[in-house]
Amino acid sequence: MIRKRPNDRCINRHQQSSTTFWSQCVNLRSLKQIHAFLITKGFNSNSSALRELIFKAAMEISVSFSMIRQKKDVVPWSALTSGYAKRGELDVARRYFDDMPVKDLVSWNVMITGYAKRGEMESARKLFNEVLKKDVVTWNAMIAGYVLSGECKKALEMFEEMKTVGERPDEVTMLSLLNACADLGDLQVGMKIHWSLSEMVSSSGFNVLLGNALIDMYAKCGSIGRALKVFQDMREKDVSTWNSVIGGLAIHGHAEESINLFTEMRRSKVRPNEITFVGVLVACSHAGRVNEGVNISSL
């Protein structure tokens, strides 16, 4: 029998029942019972939902550092490390992580991601170098962290290192790399990323995030024709999709096309936001259509 992954409604129901269960717990030993209980309710043993519930259980029964360090079971250690890291309490998470008798890959990835999100790339890199067996999540955490920190060249270097060891990128990897190319204005590398991405999914199959990242990259690199091609091929578009093209056209001197696209956007029932208006007002300014700009700003 294939066990189906619990949907949100099931998770909520199991959260309520497991909350009742752990409210009667009095010590750390009960965490193993909670773990077994949740597994019987359909949670995968490595799922983030399961770890979150165990973390809440530990908080409910006031599990202390001194209590948990006496145990060898990786489940409560990993759950507490992940829970504190996701709450932004990275120093507390690190205490549990450093004392874990056996560190699982999820915990390594959680800590690396936590440091990367805080811009502490030296700490993230140090942990990264200690991971013996990395997965795509480990690499993605470092690449995204470098982009977030403005070290986009290091992000591209990390990708080259990733390819050297034979780790296959996923769409999350590509999204970070496109953002790096956009910030660097590196059209040639951006085109290579696009080509690699096209081998993974068809151009019409790009999700909105990937499509928007491609448009933004091409627009920032001055390749408006390619940006428009991606835009036209996308089946789903959101306000950011339109904004990237409208703004890109305006900045690179295609004022009339930008204004026309804004008109098309309104006809398509996509509601413009402040970024949309900035882009189209820049276009009106470049085209000398001041009166039209005034009318647009009053919408």
TrEMBL record:
Record GO biological process: RNA modification
Pfam families found in the cross-reference section: PPR, PPR_2
Ranges that cross the membrane: none
PPR repeats: 73-103, 104-134, 135-169, 207-237, 238-272
Chain coiled-coil ranges: none
Keywords associated with the record: Repeat
Record-level Gene Ontology MF annotations: RNA binding
InterPro entries: PPR_At4g14850-like_plant, PPR_rpt, TPR-like_helical_dom_sf
The protein's name in its UniProt record: Pentacotripeptide-repeat region of PRORP domain-containing protein
